[in-house]
Amino acid sequence: MQKTTAAPILEVRDVRKHYAAHTALDGVSLAVPEQSIFGLLGPNGAGKTSLIRIITQITGADSGEVLFRGEKLNSSHIGQIGYLPEERGLYKKMKVGEQLLYLAQLRDLSRADAVQRIKKWLDRLELKPWAEKNVEDLSKGMQQKVQFIATVLHEPKLIILDEPFSGFDPINANLIKDEILALRDQGATIIFSTHRMESVEELCDSIALINKSRKVLDGPVTAIKNQFKTNTYEVEGQGRLMLMHPDFEVVEQKERENDHFYARVQLHAGATPNDLLRFLIGQVQVHAFRERIPSINEIFIRRVGETMPGSLVENVNA
Amino acid sequence: MNKIWLIIQREYLTRVRKKSFLVISLLAPLLLAATTIGIAKFSSSSEADVVAVHDESGLNMAARLQDTDEVHFVPAAPGSLAAAQAAFEKAKPKQEALLDIPASFTLDKPQGIQVMGKGNVALKRQLNIRKAVTKAVSELKMARSGIKQETIDDLQAKIELSAINLDEVGGQRNDAGTTTGMAYVLSILVYMFIFIYGVQVMRGVSEEKSNRIMEVMISSVKPFQLMMGKILGIAGVVLTQFALWLVLSWGITTVVAPLLLNSDKPTTTTTTTTAATSTSPATAAQPATTATASPAADPTSPDALAEAPKPGQTFSIWSMLGGLPIGRIIGGFLFFFLGGYLLYSSLFAAIGSAVDDQTDAQQFMFPVTIPLILSYIVSINVIINGDPNGPLAFWLSMIPLTSPIAMVMRLPFGVPVWQLALSGTLLVLGFIGTTWVAARIYRVGILMYGKKVTYKELSKWMFYKG
Fold first, then answer.
1. Residue/partner pairs of B321-324 with CB below 8 Å, 24 or more apart
2. Angstroms from A182 CA to nearest CA on chain B
3. Domain ranges, ordered by start, for chain A
4. Cβ-based neighbours of A310, under 8 Å, separated by 6 or more
5. Could you report the per-residue pLDDT of B277-319, keeping only the tens digit for each?
6. Of B4, B50, B276, B345, which residue is least crowded by CB atoms under 10 Å?
7. What distance in Å separates the CA atoms of residue A71 and residue A205, rounded to the nearest whole number?
8. Can you give the pLDDT at residue A45?
9. Which residues in chain A are closer than 8 Å to B7, comparing Cβ atoms?
10. Which of 211-230 (B) contact A at CB < 8 A?
11. Is A50 in contact with A209 (CB distance < 8 Å)?
């Protein structure tokens, strides 16, 4: 599924953006591979929204450039980009169908095409009976679905979703998640900005982490995880574990009922997991042995925590 | 361009399709017609006040008091004042006032006269009665000095004044009443509509902001397109409303009103009232009074008789407008209204973009509405009650913030072409200027949430980079 080698659909080169009092983006560069789901992560106020607003042409960058399929970003690309902002809403007194038609036409879609696709999408997301209702008569979840349709109706090549799951119940969140994956499989590229790391883990092919106006990390999710591996292994077993060895270090050890235990062991340079396993077999009965891969959440906290007050660093190992 | 057109369409259609738009469009002319017909009926049925005169002076004042259009004197019931009062209170048909001239009243000491009424006696009624009494007393005094009645009549001078506007082809008669009425009507329309629809623009913008649809919108269109689309769409609503009112008022005043009034044999005065007010829903009372005072309403003027519609004949305001530069008035009105609307509504849009909710808007509305209100009040005093071509009137009609109202007010009086051109140019420059300023505030304001905005902040936004 993952095609990280493809040419980037979007390239951001050394983009800077200053506001009166602060710097929102300080030389950010990144490339979004075509037909992938790209996670744009970062703590609040890191500059994600500023970057998204530059990509969606709401504001301009002070310096640097943004390339869309190799072309300098311009207003002709508006129809190829779909944007679901975090702060989103609809005209309350407008009918669902009319509103979708209006928004699609503003995104360069012809009236006839729009009418057809609206039908298809309303059907698909089970909103058909509501097409002639005013938006204010819809529940919040339904309004969110309408917003999602408005974002993808013009079949954009690049879809930017800012916290798309907020406000959805788990069932509808799953529905939207499936739609996002389907859109990717149909050839769209999705930039996905969120705080919910489990959805990043689930969906993203690659990520970029922005902190304090700078990009601190980017690349394919698997590569990043490998990069952040600490050569640590989790062991579960039965017996009395007494690990006193120059090559291994016990990071954490928990005694459990019936002489069972759980331990996290870090290997020092030169040691292999097989060395550890051999050593363990001589001492205890091994029930489970696996490498510990850091979650995106851990990586996020670790990288952001490095530049933040100590309290957050503590959380890494929690 | 295509997108701005889509926005204009949406803004226009959502407003025009509202029930409230339909109701106001239909109801306003109907209400207006009902009011004018009501006023006409009322004023024609109570043309002259009936005043009973109880005269104990022995000077035969009761016979001496001359009836006018407004007052009709009748002798009170004979006997004491108390008897006269009792009779007055039971009188049928109803009498408006009882005038008591006591026995102590003499020509040398003309004092002690009282007017009694049920409730307060209206000031206008008091003035009319005093005028009649004064006239009677001075005639009696002149007679006492040996001047004959014929001489007295001969001494009364009756002056007619006809003003001619030489600018108009063939030196048309300048009908001060229609002109002034027109000036009132046009200027209040401009004032009202700029105000009402300017606030609608503001509300629309802040609604988009609080709805949080703004970010979706401006990722599709430029903020400037969104702002202008809204302003122009609402301008279309205003023009539609104008057109509907004009057509409906015309229909009602020319078709319905005469039918209703015919049974009543409308006098020239009442028909003038109907006609002059029919274009204005808001100023029904004002032009009515001015129009009544106009020469056209004076049946003794030969010119007026020729022009004024005769009772029972089909008539309308449209025939009365003959003496005015209609083409220039309509063109000028549309131009200055639209110019003023664009100028003010872009400022209103900027306010709407800067605040988070309606209540915060108050402090910023103040400096925008003040010039609007002031230009209306000052213009009335300077132009209608003063000199429509004086220096102050000139300057008021040149400054873009005041010219939409001041110039429209001057239009019926006739304005030199060069002044129209200059004022128009300045207005265009003015609204380009305010639109530029507003657009710069707008594009920052619409994305700014949860920030207490100050004037200093607003002025900073103007210099932000895109």
1. B321/B178, B321/B182, B322/B172, B323/B165, B323/B168, B323/B172, B323/B173, B323/B174, B323/B175, B323/B178, B323/B179, B324/B175, B324/B178, B324/B179, B324/B182, B324/B412
2. 23
3. 8-226, 230-291
4. none
5. 344 443 333 343 333 333 333 344 344 333 444 443 444 455 5
6. B50
7. 24
8. 82
9. 106
10. 211-213, 215-221
11. no
Q: Quote the pLDDT of residue B105.
A: 83
- Taking only the tens place, the pLDDT of each residue in B64-81 is 788 877 788 888 878 788
CB contact under 8 A, B216 and A57: no
In A147-278, the DSSP E strands lie at: 158-162, 189-193, 206-211, 214-220, 232-238, 248-255, 260-267
CB B383 within 8 A of CB B406: yes
**CATH number of this structure's domain A8-226, picked from the four choices 3.40.630.30, 3.40.50.300, 3.90.79.10, 3.90.400.10:** 3.40.50.300
Annotation: CATH topology of B48-153: D-Maltodextrin-Binding Protein; domain 2 (3.40.190)
Helix (H) / strand (E) element for B288: namely helix B285-292
Extract long-range pairs of B254-261: CB within 8 Å, 24+ residues apart.
B254/B314, B254/B316, B254/B318, B256/B33, B257/B33, B257/B36, B257/B37, B258/B314, B258/B315, B260/B37, B261/B37, B261/B40, B261/B41
| Residue A231: DSSP 8-state | S
Q: What is the mean pLDDT of residues B34-53?
A: 69
| CB within 8 Å: A62 and B218 | no
Are B221 and A105 within 8 A, CB to CB?
Answer: no
CB pair distance less than 8 Å for B212 and A88:
yes
Mark yes or no for CB contact A106/B464 under 8 Å. no
* Alpha-carbon gap: B459 to the closest alpha carbon of chain A (Å): 13
Instruction: Describe the strand order of the beta sheet including A260-267 as a list of residue ranges.
Output: A248-255, A260-267, A232-238, A285-291
How many interface pairs between A and B have CB atoms less than 8 angstroms apart?
59
Q: Give the C-alpha separation, B167 to B164, whole Å.
A: 9
Measured in angstroms, the CA of A56 and the nearest CA of chain B are apart by 6
Strands A158-162 and A189-193: parallel
Minimum Cα–Cα distance from A147: chain B residue:
B216
B128: number of CA atoms within 13 Å, CB side? Answer: 19
DSSP H helical ranges for B119-222 = 123-144, 149-155, 176-211, 214-218
Q: Which residue of chain A is at minimal alpha-carbon distance from B205?
A: A91
Residue B76: count of CB within 10 angstroms of its CB? 23
The model carries a pTM of 0.73
Residues 437-456 of B with CB under 8 A from A: 447, 449
Question: In sequence order, which residues have a C-beta less than 8 Å from that of residue B310 and are 6 or more positions away?
Answer: B268
Flag residues of chain A having pLDDT under 70: 1-6, 307-318
Mean pLDDT over residues B388-412, rounded? 88
